[in-house]
Design brief:
single chain; 292 residues; alpha/beta; four-stranded mixed beta sheet; 10 strands; globular
Length: 292
């Protein structure tokens, strides 16, 4: 947490306001946050009661909104949902805003996460077509247009698909000023890595992902630790959700959009499929900020 705090304090363009939600920490977190809030008047700490357990997905977004609802979103051009387990390069926010100012269609963006293994930084291999969940940087007009975050697992993919369906661009870049160290592996869980992988499978089912596309995704992830078994656990989570008849995202039009993109990506690759959508949807894009 101190590494995240220090890396944000050191930004060449720090936030005008940083609301940090402490949802029931039982360690030294409150004291550490109070220390930084005392030193920096743009840091505000919001205390949220402990829910009694860690809840990845809906719990993360619940905590986000506990802080977001304390501010006036219209007072800001950009917002960022930021986890407290990241070490950001010092030009991170500046670089993101520069790129968004250069292209007003970019609605959400991020850098790329790297994890340290055996002393070396290794890419977490996140696609260019998504802003990553641990640091979601948003143009406020885009965030409003998509209706904010869905309070469920896969919220951090659903938002990008929704933005793209409305003509916005969602993107992440691999660049020295944007690559950051992720201090906790993606897909992990307070219970086990297997629980986290199966949860991801449920999330893909909830989002409505095409079965063949998700099977290919699981095969791609088998090349990462825990090798083979991690990808199988992801597939298991998807199949179990399908067999149980679990609920799905209540947006059939968006599910149809997601599946059409995924099936096209299987044929021509993600980059070309995204480029085709961006060209096609340019006509429906509408940023109120451009006419103000």
């Amino acid at each position: 947490m101190r590494r995240t705090l220090d890396s944000v304090v050191a930004q060449t363009v720090p936030p005008r306001l940083w609301v940090i939600v402490d949802d029931g920490s039982t360690d030294d977190t409150p004291q550490i946050l109070a220390e930084y809030a005392t030193r920096h008047d743009w840091i505000r700490v919001v205390q949220k009661p402990d829910r009694g357990h860690r809840a990845v997905g809906p719990g993360v977004i619940e905590a986000f909104y506990a802080g977001y609802e304390t501010v006036d979103p219209d007072a800001f051009s950009y917002s960022c949902k930021l986890d407290l387990d990241l070490d950001l390069p010092n030009r991170y926010f500046e670089t993101l805003m520069d790129r968004m100012e250069a292209n007003p269609r970019i609605g959400t963006c991020s850098g790329k996460p790297y994890i340290r293994r055996n002393g070396d930084l290794m890419s977490e291999r996140r696609g260019d077509e998504m802003s990553v969940g641990m640091t979601k940087f948003y143009r406020q007009t885009c965030f409003k247009a998509i209706g904010g975050y869905v309070r469920e697992v896969m919220w951090d993919a659903i938002d990008c698909h929704k933005a793209r369906s409305l003509g916005w661009i969602a993107v992440s870049w691999d660049h020295p000023d944007l690559n950051f160290e992720h201090l906790r592996p993606m897909g992990s869980s307070q219970q086990s890595i297997w629980t986290g992988k199966r949860r991801h499978g449920f999330g893909q089912y909830f989002m409505g992902s095409d079965p063949l596309f998700y099977t290919a995704t699981c095969a791609f992830r088998m090349a990462e630790p825990p090798y083979i078994l991690g990808g199988l656990a992801m597939l298991q989570g998807y199949v179990q959700a399908w067999m149980r008849g679990d609920r799905r995202l209540d947006d059939p039009d968006l599910i149809a959009f997601i599946r059409a993109y995924q099936r096209r990506a299987l044929r021509v690759g993600k980059a070309r499929a995204v480029a085709e959508i961006e060209a096609e949807r340019a006509a429906v894009w509408d940023d109120p900020g451009q006419t103000a």
